[in-house]
Structures are given as C-alpha cells and as structure tokens.
Write a structure and sequence with these properties.
heterodimer, A: 292 residues, alpha+beta, 6-stranded antiparallel sheet, 4-stranded parallel sheet, 12 helices, B: alpha+beta, Alpha-Beta Plaits
C-alpha cells in the first residue's frame, strides 16, 4: 500500500465508545496484519513496561477515534514520541460520512477508511504534531451552567476551569494552561476589537498581565490566574478578536502558559462552582444598583 | 482569595499633583471606589478602597494625566499567601 508497515507501532483508541473508536480499532488490526505492532491502550495503561521493547522498535502511530483524542493523551502522558497521528472522526468528516453513536461499524465505513489510509499515513508529518496535539488537548466541548439577570444570560463552565476575581479563566491540561476572559467580561466590555498578545517565552507572574484586550467600550488587561512561561498565543484572536464574544471559553482563548507552580497557586483561585456563585452575586448586585 | 478583603491593601492612590479632576476614572469604575467632593479642594477621593477588585487596574487606563497608581502585585500576592497560611495555622482571619 505504498507505506512501510514493518516499523509502525500502533496505539489506537480502545474502540468501545463510539463507531469512530471501533473503526480506529479495526484500522489498527488491519495495520498489524501488514506487519505493524499493536499497543493495547488498556494494558499499556496498566503495565507500560510490557510494551517497552515494541515501542523502541518502531515509529509510533496514534489512531484516535473521536476528537476527544484519548490515545493521543495517553501517549503524551507517558512521554511517548508520536511520529504520526490519525483521527477517524476527521477522516469520516472528510468523506462526508457521519459516525454513529453505536460502537459497531456500519458496513462500508471501514473499507471507505482503508481507501483513504495510504494517503493519510503519508500526509501526517511530525512538524505539525506539537501544535496539533494542543488543539486536541484543548478541543473538547465544555458543558455550561447558566443564569439570567434581567434579560442577560451568563454562562460559566461546569468543570475544568479556574477563575480569579478579575473574571479571567485558566483551563489546565497537564502542565499547560490556556487563559482567557469570562462570558461576563465579554458581555460588559461589548465587541472586542483588538487583542495585544504577550511575547512568546515571556515569564508571567500570578496575577500579572498576560496581554490585553480592547473593546468598543473599554480596554482591559488579561490578569493571569497562574504564573508561567508564555508558550503560545492565539493568533486567530489577533485576526478575529470577536472570538472572545462568540466563544469566550474555547475559541476565545488568548494565551497558553507552561505552568510554574500550579498546586500552590490554585489555592488563590475559584473553581467553576465558586466562580458561578461569585459571579451571580456580583451581577445581581450590579443589576440592583443600576435598576433599583 | 480566602483572606478578608479588608486585609488586602489593594486600591488606587491619587497623585493630586497630577490629577486634573476630569472624573474619567470615576465614570469608568462600576464599583464605587471613588467619590466626588464638589465643594472641597480635592474634588475626588478614594472613599471605598475595599470595593476595589484586587489586582484590577482598569481605572488607571482611563487616566490621561497618569495620576493613579497601585501597590506592587507581587508584594500583595505574597501578603495574601502569608495571611492564608496564618489563617490556616489558627491565627484567625478576622
């Protein structure tokens, strides 16, 4: 099939949740029949030593089922070097096929994927891996809890975020955190028109400034909930600052930090529930003061 | 922060040599930190420092003559951490 199979070590999704996962499993079994070695994600988690030899033997191909990317995350947690990566949900999207919830592959879906496989394996290059990984790491959708004050609706994530009293958030994954401003900020500041990012590599203190935003109404600093080194900034936000208004907790992220002291700094922050209560009280108070 | 707001000395300070009483900061701040005193020489004062959001310096951005200053963030962070520790070890938190 035009790709060297004899040096691939495949770490797939375990394939029991959705069809995309089941197809990832089928794809890896197909590759092993062509000479690739297989790493069972469950056994690898339990006894990583069992796969030490195999992993040293060839290049690692990670096959994720859906966009949650469990296999990628597992590889990353264990410090494995990912040489190539496939994502079945993305491959299905490409072919206009909708993956099913039922984890039993539909007839024809596997053969469609197999027809795409050789090209996909050739396409994925290592240079993109780091950036792609972080997109996967932070890509999951976030469940929101809402409240209304007057005619205004405010959203706060249910879990996974830390907030300071300056209404800035941090979403932490491992030793990385993405920072942004809350839904409350985007509503009170109105349309964002400018994002001035910090420099990559800059060291930021806890509660120090991590860039600034300007809206049609005001200018505000992004007050970093954590200290750390700026690893990335959201270039899309420089081009489209309105992403803060459209999607403040995901696409509207501003800065990515490599954390310096997560465990002691988190004590000075609020978790999602605490911020929800804090914000609700604050907005209700502001509303009372304004409208009596 | 786990520390009573009254123990955190964070609020703006007005440099009256620079302030021209344009009131932009007061118009901007939604927390009623400032208060206007029409009949006094100092027509604007920091009347409610405890209302100021710790680490917020947004009003300073509205100040054309650059008359507003704030304490050092690092020192305040260190103080908050210290107060928290004291609170935990039974020192009472007021």
């Amino acid at each position: 099939m035009g790709v060297e199979m004899d040096k691939l070590v495949v770490l797939p999704c375990n394939g029991l949740d959705k069809e995309a996962g089941a197809l990832a499993r089928e794809l890896s079994l197909h590759l092993t029949r062509q000479g690739a070695k297989l790493v069972c994600p469950v056994l690898y988690q339990r006894s990583p030593a069992r796969y030490k030899k195999d992993l040293a033997w060839g290049e690692l191909l990670v096959i994720d089922g859906c966009k949650t990317g469990c296999a990628s995350k597992l590889a990353r947690e264990r410090g494995l070097k990912i040489a190539r990566r496939l994502n079945v949900a993305e491959m299905l999207d490409k072919m206009g096929i909708k993956g099913q919830k039922d984890p039993v592959p539909e007839t024809g879906h596997l053969s469609a994927l197999l027809s795409l496989l050789p090209d996909m394996l050739l396409l994925r290059k290592e240079e993109e891996e780091e950036e792609r990984f972080e997109e996967i790491l932070f890509s999951e959708s976030v469940e929101m809890k809402e409240f209304m004050v007057g005619k205004f609706l405010f959203k706060v994530p249910v879990a996974g975020y830390y907030f300071n009293e300056n209404d800035c958030w941090a979403r932490v994954e491992g030793n990385l955190a993405r920072l942004g401003v809350s839904d409350y900020v985007q509503q009170s500041a109105a349309d964002m028109v400018f994002f001035d990012p910090p420099e990559i590599g800059a060291e930021i203190d806890q509660f120090g400034e991590a860039g600034s935003l300007e809206s049609t109404k005001t200018a505000l600093d992004i007050i970093s909930p954590f200290s750390g080194k700026v690893k990335a900034v959201n270039h899309r936000l420089v081009e489209n600052p309105e992403l803060v208004n459209l999607d403040p907790y995901l696409q509207g992220w501003a800065v990515e930090l490599e954390l310096a002291d997560f465990s002691s700094e988190r004590e000075l922050l609020m978790d999602c529930n605490e911020y929800y209560s804090y914000l609700r009280e604050k907005v209700e108070r502001e509303f009372r003061e304004k409208y009596g | 922060m786990g520390v009573p707001r009254s123990k955190i000395p964070w609020c703006p300070e007005i440099d009256y040599d620079k302030c021209d009483f344009c009131m932009e900061c007061d118009k901007f701040c939604p927390h009623r930190v400032f208060e206007r005193r029409e009949n006094e020489e100092r027509k604007l004062v920091v009347a409610h420092p405890e209302n100021c959001v710790v680490f917020c310096r947004a009003c300073a951005k509205t100040c054309a003559p650059d008359a507003l200053s704030f304490p050092d963030k690092k020192e305040i962070t260190a103080l908050i951490k210290r107060l928290r520790e004291e609170g935990k070890s039974g020192g009472g938190d007021g």
